[in-house]
Amino acid sequence: MTNEEAAIPEVLITDRRGSGERSDRRGGDRRKRSIPVAVERRSGKDRRQQGERRRQIDPTTCERDYSDEEIAFMKAMDQYKRDNRRPFPTWSEVLEVLRALGYRKVAEPTAMPGLTPAAPPVAEEED
């Protein structure tokens, strides 16, 4: 063993706080001082006086007007999610809400909106 290896202790302690107490480098706790401020924002007096939270407004869909049926469906879904604490309901649960609103299947299925029916492939004729 060399002289340098003998000088290094087995365990190094890197705690520089000294005397076991935490020293505050700022010179004291600033929260104990009473500093006057222009507007007291923590009192809650300036907060909005709204009974219902504004989370029902979806900024991605505000560009269009909804029909009465669409609004009724959105409100029913929101109420279902709140009552059952289900932020992401399954499609079965969405179907339950639709049925609770009175919707029933009474006609044969039609083409889905927004989809164009696929034309049958044209067979190439050989000469």
Characterise this structure:
By secondary structure, this protein is mostly helical. The chain has a domain at 65-105. It has three helices and no strands. It has helices at residues 3-7, 68-84, 91-100. The longest helix is centred in the middle third of the chain and has 17 residues, at 68-84. The N and C termini lie far apart (96 Å).
Number of helices: 3
Order of helices and strands: HHH
Would you tell me the structural class of the helices and strands?
mainly alpha
Sketch the major β-sheet.
Answer: none
**Fraction of residues in H or I helices:** 25-40%
Shape designation: elongated
How far do the termini sit from each other? 96 Å
Content of β-strand: under 5%
Radius of gyration, whole Å: 34 Å
Oligomer: single chain
Q: Poorly predicted ranges (pLDDT <50, ≥5 residues)?
A: none
Task: Reconstruct the topology from this structure.
Blueprint: H1 3-7, H2 68-84, H3 91-100
What key phrases describe this protein's structure?
elongated, 3 helices, 127 residues, mainly alpha
Brief characterization of the structure:
The chain is mostly helical. 25% of the residues lie in helices and 0% in strands.
